[in-house]
TrEMBL record:
FAD-dependent oxidoreductase 2 FAD-binding domain location: 49-454
Record's keyword terms, sorted: Flavoprotein, Oxidoreductase
Entry protein name: Fumarate reductase/succinate dehydrogenase flavoprotein subunit
Limits of the Fumarate reductase/succinate dehydrogenase flavoprotein-like C-terminal domain: 515-649
Organism name: Planosporangium thailandense
Amino acid sequence: MGNDQIGNYIVGEPIAETKAPDGPIETRWERRRFSGKLVNPANKRKMTVIVVGTGLAGASAGATLAELGYHVKSYCYQDSPRRAHSIAAQGGINAAKNYRNDGDSVYRLFYDTVKGGDFRSRESNVYRLAEVSVNIIDQAVAQGVPFAREYGGLLDTRSFGGTQVSRTFYARGQTGQQLLLGAYQALERQIAAGNVEMNARHEMLELIIVDGRARGIVVRDLVTGEITTEFADAVVLASGGYGNVFFLSTNAKGCNVTASWRAHRKGALFANPCYTQIHPTCIPQSGDHQSKLTLMSESLRNDGRVWVPKKAGDKRAPGDIPEDERDYYLERIYPSFGNLVPRDIASRAAKNVCDEGRGVGPGGLGVYLDFADAIKRLGRPAVEAKYGNLFDMYQRITGEDPYEVPMRIYPAVHYTMGGLWVDYDLQSTIPGLFVIGEANFSDHGANRLGASALMQGLADGYFVLPNTINEYLAAGPFPKVDGQHPAAVEARTQVEDRLQRLLSINGDRTVDSFHRELGHIMWEYCGMERTDAGLRKAIELIRGLREEYWRRVKVSGAGEGLNQALERAGRVADFLELAELMCIDALHRTESCGGHFRAESQTPDGEAQRDDENFSYVAAWEFTGAGQPPVLHKEDLNFEYVHPTQRSYK
Ligand SMILES: Cc1cc2nc3c(=O)[nH]c(=O)nc-3n(C[C@H](O)[C@H](O)[C@H](O)COP(=O)(O)OP(=O)(O)OC[C@H]3O[C@@H](n4cnc5c(N)ncnc54)[C@H](O)[C@@H]3O)c2cc1C
């Protein structure tokens, strides 16, 4: 062990075991499944699995595990499992079906994903994801998910960023909702069969570890305020991403890091926390009153053309700017991929033109996404059929009609590639704690390609976890534990003390005002562009804000009964710890890669400059105490198939 040069972390032992198989990549998953232990049906009935989360990852996992014969206890904080944030997903889900015969294949999806993630993901996992993608579509179709179809009856597809094929399956602009209805119905079937015990409006506030294994959780009933301890043979976290650490993001307001952070505090390593996806096509922020930002799906870049005026400070209405005075900058800089460059690249390009004074709309923080050509080429009804609900949404929010004037868009926080570290079996560093969907550090490396989150969440939930968890549960059932066990009493007491502490501060600042300030710090210093000096400053500011939080936060009401201020207070307290780790991670990674752009590390033409020699690893952080230097464990990344090169979309 040694101290690093910035004094904010300690370098620990590298991660030795990822369980990623070797040998030919196309047979790795098959061989892993065959070599893994099975659990016989009679034993499955004796075992319980807790699944925290009912989004696409959690609902698909819960339904599938119950279908296999395990008893499942499912938790979500919404009033219904089908209100999980996954419902917001708009544009589509990738799968290497090659229905278009346009050159797609499992290998190409694998290749695009490794390259799209800027060579910061684990090859074995990404190949498996691409392989399993084709099963997801069959599964969803069998459930009745109404994917868009072509005239001939085949499922329709469109293109998303970072690819030159058309592999994105979609259900208008409501793909997440339709897929979630499919997974939710599968879950409901098992609830009705008595195999899944559904606990809506329950929030997990602590993990219970007994004899080194994850054996349960502490939950708070959000309606009555009752705190209980729940036990199982294994715990699965499917609790989503943490983009709301930035306060403003496209995520649902409730999305938070608490489930993952509580597990992190108990020993689960947190990987690549600084990898944040900033999505290029969001409705620009209109003022300080906002609590949320709205995504305009990436699918719009299939037909919309992105441009700004050539001249800085040009305030003319878009219709008054002639063609030869417009800069279709993505088509100009990246002729091969044009408007369909990956998100990190499109976002940075938008920021650059705005920094040059060529941004449009209030404050100059916007670029146009223009459908005039598409409407001319395809006709308005065709554009309406593809994107109607997105256009309506845009019009309702901005008061402008995108059929008549170009949309205005600007990058916003959208997705977090970081999350709890998991091995090939999706198991964290705590035995018996599995993590799936956006909550794990995932297969997307430093930048996720569009339409790949739904693919990963459903791959994890329907196909990967139900296979890999058997290996762990084959050693079960584990000795019975109840609420009297010292580990359970301790975890429960921790929760009660923390809630009490939050309620008793009775300060003079609202939870939201702290969250908003934290968001400003994160966006300014750990957002689209990061610098050494900025990150150091952010760490100091976050530490100060955290100290102030525990002195001045005001949480009204009581712990008994519904108290949303108390719910938010706990979540923001966790964001205040996570934010520091994100900045430490971003500071230590002195290269640029994907969504992590360090101003000091760029190519002469302003693209992200990786440093493979020093940073070709996953940074997995160990918690050592709030405000204490975390320990860095590196998982080295080896590329046997897709060899790292300077990413080019030109
Ligand atoms: C506006 C928008 C559009 C998107 N469009 C697309 C798209 O077109 N294609 C694509 O691939 N991806 C898209 N994404 C990304 C994708 O939607 C998400 O990454 C994905 O849905 C996450 O699924 P999940 O199951 O991992 O988590 P979520 O859907 O976020 O579900 C999390 C679940 O965990 C529960 N939970 C969390 N914490 C706790 C706790 N402490 N206790 C109890 N329960 C808890 C919640 O109640 C919820 O049920 C989009 C994202 C956004 C924001």
